Amino acid sequence: MSTFFEQTQTLVKRAADVLGLSAEMLTRLNTPDRVLEFELSVRMDDGTEKKFPAWRVQHNNALGPYKGGIRFHQDSNLDEVKALASLMTWKTSLMGIPYGGAKGAVVVDPRSLSARELEELSRSYVRAVAQYIGPDKDVPAPDVGTNAQIMEWMVDEYEKIVGKPSPAAFTGKPIEKGGSHGREEATGFGGYVIIKEYMARKTFADTGENITAAIQGFGNVGQNIASFLYRHGLKIIAVSDSKGGLCEPEGINIPRLLEIKEKTGIIDRNKCYALSAHQMLCRDCSNASLLVIKTDILIPAALENQITEINAPDVKAKVILEMANGPVTPEAEGLLLGKGVEIIPDILANGGGVVGSYFEWMQSRANDYWPKDRVLQAIEEKMKVAFRDVANTKGTHGVSWREAAYIRALGRVVQAMK
Ligand code: NAD
Hints:
The structure is a single chain. The protein has helices at 4-19, 23-29, 78-94, 115-129, 148-162, 183-201, 220-231, 254-264, 287-291, 330-338, 346-349, 352-366, 372-397, 401-417, and strands at residues 34-43, 49-60, 66-73, 101-107, 138-142, 212-216, 235-241, 244-247, 283-284, 297-300, 319-321, 342-344. By secondary structure, the protein is α/β, with parallel strands linked by helices. Residues 143-145, 187, 216-222, 240-242, 287, 301-303, 323-325, 350, 353 line the site of nicotinamide-adenine-dinucleotide (NAD).
């Protein structure tokens, strides 16, 4: 199987071929501008010193400052960071915002650290990259394993280094520290806007039932999209996280599940009776079975490479909304498209997060606070324009949603580079 970065390069090459780009331009588009690689040292609570491999990859800044999250995960590696940085370039371009693409990561399971160790690790990451980041250079944000608290530590460390307030150097901050209302739900909300736009063009009427969705990953993105879809009247028939999952053919009561997860930290099957009137049907659901459940919409919202050539033949969804980055491998995509499954690609589906970050950055630069409604409305407008652009490009070139999204995204970046 090709690596995640190789998969991303293949997607870029396909779009470059359609656009008739030169081999030289393709090489530039597929090569990061800068790869920073370092080891972070943290004094642990037991007095020992521990080293953590870390990276920041700045992929392309033709359209504006580099932009992208920092991931804290035990399985992170450079290939993944390069792929994710490249995806950010295409996503920001597709969303029509003035940013390039970047990504960072630290190899660590953040749950294994104390709060003090986590703070020390976050601050030492900033010390390592400080000269390469800033509001006009590279603006990091949270990703898997990082959150608003970590951004607060990071921006504080950055401000100490530069000797002045600089809230626009990071996004995803707590509201009271220059964060934005609506940023927390921005990615889930954006995905909800995209699937609504998609559903408005398609008919699911042949099922004769309510529209169903299954969601893998119940963190920031999974929980928020579940809430918006639930409020919109969709039936969420399965959810899962790294510890397990829950299937309920009659639909899960999402607000209730969120309360239970808040209290217990897990998606608790034993509390299932509280989630549905159809308690007898409520059952454990592994991640493997969730991905092949019979549903209208399948929403991978955890990590990459979840749908591969192994499980793709068994996928029964009509449409896959990629809320995670890179959850469907190219081999799987070939099989799925052959079966008539449509795939709304990550750079379109989860672009709401970076759009929300962009509005936070604007507010931080202007020392302003927008109300949540204004932020969500602004995100909705950007998402709708991006969806229409991709749908039109798809129609013009007769290609898949993913190819159309890349053609659109590359076009803007190449124009700026020229
Ligand atoms: P998160 O850390 O808040 O949540 C991740 C969730 O995935 C958790 O519920 C975790 O338990 C679950 N998970 C981990 N491994 C799993 C596995 N093998 N099977 C099932 N579930 C598993 O992260 P998040 O911010 O929700 O991000 C999720 C995905 O969305 C990532 O791919 C991320 O890059 C992407 N994304 C996030 C944002 C954002 O704004 N947070 C924006 C764009 C894209």
